[in-house]
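Hey, sorry to bother you again with one of my protein questions. There's a protein on my desk that I can't quite get my head around. No rush at all, and the record is pasted right below.
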Amino acid sequence: MRMPQANHTPKDVERIVKRLESLRPIFARAAIGDYSADVPPYETEDELTEFAVGLQIMLEVIREKIAKHEELQKTLEEKIVEYADTQRALLNVMEDEKQTRAQLELVRQREAEEKKKLEILVESVGEGIIAVDEKLQVVMVNSAAYAILKATEKDIIGKQICEVMQVMDSDKKVIPENEYPCTLSIQLKKRLVLGNLESPYYLKSLYHDPVPVSLTSTPLLSNGTRGAVIVIRDISEEVAHSRTRSEFITVASHQLKSPMTIIRWISEWLTENETLSEEGKKLLNDLHSASLRLTSLTDTLLNVSRLEEGMVRVDVTSVDVGKLVSEYCNLLSSYAKEKEVTLQCVSPSTPVKIKSDAALITVIVQVLLTNALDYTLAGGTVSIAAARDESRTVIKVWDSGIGIPQQEQHHIFTKFYRAPNAVPYKVEGTGLGLYTAKKITDLLGGKLWFESQEGKGSMFFVELPEKIKAREGTKQLVF
């Protein structure tokens, strides 16, 4: 800075004082932290010019530093706010995680409780339960299943179902693994029930003989098929009781047959050779009719018993189905006239011949025709026809009778069952006719089904294979 000259005039002193006075407000504002004021410009240079310039530079530097400080302060405040927000967010996340962990723990506890309840429930069930995964590996077995298979956990768990047991059909033929109930239910994605008292399936493990069972397999469907649950019901006792009943029926029927025959012969002889009063004739006729009904009943019971025990022999010959149907239709023509029902036999245009058992087919035709006549009112019509449909031979019997109620139709092939609307028309019915026809149809490898509408009539269909194999047996049906 240039030093002022030693000699100053009063005018110079006045000028210098004014210059300093102009700087007072700047210093006053700077004293309170306000550096926004600028040094006023001067037209001429003097002793204070360099000072004023330096002061202006200093003010600008201070303002720049203040601006940077304020910017840093603002950034710091923003960072502090951001940090506070982050901290709050972390606390919220930690709180959410804590709640989530608590909820997960609660879910795990509930799952454990439900699993325990399920285990208790499964163990309490009297039927055997086996669960398999989609690869047919055994993953769960209850105590009842272990008892049926006479095996332990190490014998079963983790193994393929076909290694654990063999499944056999009602003829005790081993079923291949791809036809196991669990395999089929997984493939078809539906529940399957196989085996019952009349036609049981059998289970054979590595440790015991075949056991008669009823099997129910249900697929586990959740995001795809995850396996299946097999319910095994041991029906050994029921089968044994059924066999005992059948044996009793067989013995009782045989014991009753001879006396009934004698009673029938005696009543017929007395009617033909003795002079009787009208009341005596009526009593003998009633006795003869009762003996015929009892004989028919014992024959039916014997047939049912033989069919259920698998004792019936199948003799294969060439059978002209159309001719067989026509002949039996002629046999029942007088009964149809008595009932005032029109009986029609539709003859096939060409012979319908198959290799089968004529006597057994006759029983089926007898049951279907007599049922149609029994439950068709006077003035109605009963028709029967035999025809070849592509590779099938079908016997069809239809009528304009009372029909079968919709809610009763699933019972119609059940033993001893009679639809409620049928009883008033034939009080002495046994409910064994259609059951017998169904058993014989199955024995011949055929199918028996029907369509019916209450009050409008029924139509029964019998589908028979073109050729069957002869079957060994110790008994024939009684006709």
Notes: The two ends are 149 Å apart (CA to CA).
